[in-house]
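Write out this protein's structure.
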Amino acid sequence: MSTTADLVSLLKTELKTAGITYAQVAQRLGMAESSVKRMFSKSGDMPLSRIDEICRVLNMDFADLARRVADTQPLLLELTLAQEKAVVADRKLLTVAICALSQLPAEEILATYRLTEAELVKALTQLDRIGIIDLRPGNRYRLKVAKGFRWLPQGPVMSFFRKEVLHDYFAGGFDGESEMLMVVHGEIGRGLANSFRERLMRIGQDFSNQHLADQKLPPDQRRPYTIVIGMRSWLMAALAEMQR
């Protein structure tokens, strides 16, 4: 969440970039330069009305300032338990959340899924309130989660996937065009395990980046694929039962 301090800090940067001095701001606002300096100090207090006035000095509106501050906020690596519960409680909201994480435009979501525009707007508004996206005019949005974002390992969303998605996914033959399934078991040094995990994460990120790059292709030239990448210290029961 953006704070007043974030707004003031960005205003200082914008004034410096525009070459506008505190003396010029003071003149435009009919204030003493010392008062302006005090407002911009770390211990100062700048009311929102003053922020709005300084925005006009910079020829920008408050909404634009707030949007720029939002763009500088740290991205989320994961959601809270409460946020995940809110997402998984509504099937339509979960559908839109998954689409948003894939950065599908609103038009494509409507064309692909049985959602009315009102239902989509409601879901996007909820995702904005939850903190997953920053909703903007025209149903455009900006993700507020990082590239390395993941659902809580034992959280509500992953529980949903384990219960309703994994069986359906692995029930496939994995023998279609460009499909594959490979299960590899082995023992490796502890130090190398993390290296393999990072390489697998890069593969997942490469796939996500290609998905974004191919959004410019017409729909008939794209095909949905889902990659499941996992790695854990584990021995299947059939082998564990045979161990001495």
